[in-house]
Specification:
Length: 383
């Protein structure tokens, strides 16, 4: 169970969601469908409330909260506005490599600003030809000298990057040798570095307030003291970050499913056919019961992984299970919500169709659900 402080943070999150997020989500998403936009003011509000840095140590400006609390906050935010919850989870992911693998002097120098609540990060892993197969990436960082480089020059293009063009820093995975997935490294690149350029935002199915675009590194010079971990450690760092990041997506998917279920229940109690509320029909009530079972078991699944994480125990398999279970459940629950609303569910008069579109991508990013099955089965069979 969350501590008293955790409960207070959840209550604060609910208050901010009710006042600042829920009332704006529909209209902002509709408007951004034509031209993607990032509601930066919302992130500032969350940042100032301390909600952008929850799972990181207080000595570097973090909230010092267990993952269990952080993820419940993400779930709460997702139930109000999914794009924002995804943004919070992505930002948290971008801080992870430095917080976990950086040296003490790097942490002291860079983390306080990253965790200040004023900054947003972007996570640059994917490339057009290197999606699930990240080990085939070609973005290259070349050291300026063979022995102890002072800087790296980065050339290449990352694809599908959330917050591209808006972020204050870019946690980027780059190739530093031709040794396959053992030739990758991690750099934290300042957002104003000369040579950074951005593509036109993708025209997506949903999450319009989470702008996604290419990031071009056109000979960007990055100081060597911004290399996180050792050269060649990039793949291990990326996978470790994704173990934690996936839990953020699992929690967000649960919040989205909860919002769809709440809407469906309200509608079913209100809408009458054959002279009775449609909730009176067992065929529909059982659909709602299945939705409730899916949401409740999703929550239990991500919390189980979070508690292992908080106890310092291995949780990689459980994180993959949570990502798979919660996002598949979100897809099913949001699909069923459209069904409960009938024709109205297929219109933009209600957010059910938006929830449905937003659920789809949770099965794709931070490792597709096929890749989660790969992670789970490999760990299962390895014993
Ligand atoms: C809205 C959005 C936001 C994103 N944000 C970011 C971001 O901030 N940073 C970032 O780095 N990336 C981001 N991504 C990229 C995302 O992580 C990739 O799209 C994802 O990893 C899949 O890669 P891909 O699209 O190239 O698909 P592909 O890898 O080409 O996969 C296509 C299909 O093949 C399947 N497949 C591939 N390999 C296997 C296999 N071995 N076994 C079984 N099936 C397989 C996949 O599951 C999928 O169904 C984002 C994507 C989207 C859509």
């Amino acid at each position: 169970m969350p501590t008293e402080e955790g409960e207070e943070l959840l209550a604060l999150t609910r208050e901010i969601c009710d006042k600042a997020l829920r009332p704006r989500a529909d209209e902002a998403e509709e408007r951004a469908a034509g031209s993607p936009e990032l509601p930066r003011d919302i992130f500032r509000t969350l940042g100032r409330a301390g909600l952008l840095s929850l799972p990181y140590p207080e000595e570097y400006g973090g909230g010092g909260q267990p993952y269990e609390v952080y993820l419940q906050v993400v779930e709460e935010i997702a139930s109000a506005w999914m794009s924002i919850a995804v943004g919070v989870s992505v930002h948290s992911l971008t801080c992870y490599p430095l917080a976990r693998f950086g040296t003490e002097s790097q942490r002291r120098a860079l983390l306080p600003a990253m965790l200040s609540g004023e900054q947003l990060g972007a996570y640059c892993l994917s490339e057009r030809q290197a999606g699930s197969d990240v080990g085939s990436m070609t973005t290259r960082a070349t050291p300026d000298g063979p022995a102890t480089p002072r800087s790296y020059r980065v050339k290449g293009t990352k694809a599908w990057i959330s917050h591209a063009g808006h972020a204050d820093f870019y946690t980027a995975f780059v190739r530093t040798s031709d040794d396959g997935s053992r030739g990758l490294s991690c750099l934290v690149v300042p957002g104003d570095a000369p040579g950074l350029a951005f593509g036109t935002p993708e025209k997506k199915m949903g999450l319009h307030c989470d702008p996604v675009a290419e990031v071009h590194f056109e000979g960007v010079e990055v100081a060597a003291d911004r290399l996180v971990g050792t050269p060649g450690q990039g793949m291990a760092i990326a996978l470790s970050a994704l173990d934690s990041g996936r839990l953020g997506i699992a929690a967000a998917a649960t919040g989205l499913a909860q919002a769809a279920l709440d809407l469906a229940v309200r509608y079913a109690l209100d809408r009458e056919q054959f002279g009775r509320p449609i909730a009176d029909f067992e065929g529909l009530a059982f659909l709602l019961a299945d939705m409730e079972a899916a949401v409740t078991s999703s929550r239990a699944t991500y919390l189980h992984a979070a508690r292992l994480h908080d106890a310092g125990r291995p949780f990689s398999r459980e994180a993959a299970v949570a990502k798979l279970v919660c996002t598949d459940a979100a897809m099913q629950v949001t699909t069923d919500a459209v069904q409960v609303l009938g024709g109205a569910g297929y219109t933009r008069d209600f957010p059910a169709e938006r929830y449905f579109r937003e659920a789809k991508v949770t099965q794709i990013f931070e490792g597709t659900n096929q890749i989660q099955r790969l992670v789970i089965s490999r760990q299962l069979l390895r014993g």
